[in-house]
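Re: beginner question about structure tokens

> Can someone show what the tokenized structure looks like for a real chain? I only ever see the sequence side.

Sure, here's an example I had lying around. Input first:
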Amino acid sequence: MALFTENDIKEYFPDLHNYGIQDFSDMIAKTDEDIYRLLRIEWFPSLQSRGSYGTAWEDFDTTKLKDSQLKRSAVYYCLHKYILPKLTQWAVEGDSFQTQIGFYKNAFDEEFEIAKKDLYYDWDGDGVYEDHEHEIQPKQRLVR
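And the corresponding structure tokens:
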């Protein structure tokens, strides 16, 4: 199942269908792949280094994530990475779409950092997200 739908994009970009793009399924699929790849690289290995449940980063299973926690991040990512670049003319002086790309890129970066620090991951695979499966990431600090 996808992290988000076309209707979720419309919440943030109501004029979605006014620019000639009618099918967003490929962009949604690419966004899902990108978000999962980022989690596999940035989030999941940090759990192993802290001695959490998994044994190797290859054990990462996207079906065990609480997808609803990633919806906003995924929408922001799709807008800045796939949708808005198709709409801009890439003029030297810029246009409103280029401004929006920057806005949604920053919004994604902020939201994704928050989401990574507060994700539920169904370690035992029972379909229930329990308190002990809530991986709150500690702040990074320098230890000497």
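Each token stands for a local structural state, so reading them left to right follows the chain. The chain has four helices and two strands.
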